[in-house]
Write the structure tokens for this entry.
Amino acid sequence: MNKVSCSAKVAFKKVTHVIFDLDGLLLDTESIYKRVFSDIAKKYGKVYTPEIQAKVIGRVEREGAKVAVTEMKLPISPSQFLQQYKSMAENSLASVGIMPGAERLVRHFHSKQVPIAVATSSGQDTYDLKVAKHTSLFSLFSHVVTGGTDPEVERGKPSPDIFLVCASRFKDKPKPEQCLVFEDAPNGVQAALGAGMQVVWVPDKQTDESLGKMATLKLNSLEEMKPELFGLPPLEK
């Protein structure tokens, strides 16, 4: 089986800066979200299907809640859904683990002085909760954009706003085409491409792969990443 794939129409271009998504890409949070969303749905006799999940992941919390409530026809408001979700997920998110290959890649880029940042749809409070156990790793990033609460991010993913804002906050203000994005969500892939950036897609195993077919490169895991494909320093063996 070919582990690494990309669109035949896309040639890799050299980049200088890297932007990471957070949930399901650096941190193993999607399994928590899936369990909590499924438990809420079950309370009302509904099912949180993979199709609905694909529409939710990558969005800011308030928009994700709205999609979940609408798609599952739940008899509660999006704000009530969010309230239930936050109370049910809090303990699990505080002890969330790191995705395979993520720490090695982040520390590698930092050691080679490649500017790195995080662009997450989470709000600041949720971000702080999720990274509390991993402060040494997340201190390596130049900056973090929390799209759920950042006033400059007017529209959440799949709109490109968050990646454009994130790029503008690097000290040397790189052009969008100089940035490489790592994403796990189809909404994030669409947002990165809309921002004029190349995107490496690391989808959840249950995600319909056709939803991210326009990604520059698809990997099964960050462990498969070869930075030299994009002109970045290769990982040391």
About this structure: Residues 184 and 204 are 7 Å apart (CA to CA). The mean pLDDT is 92.
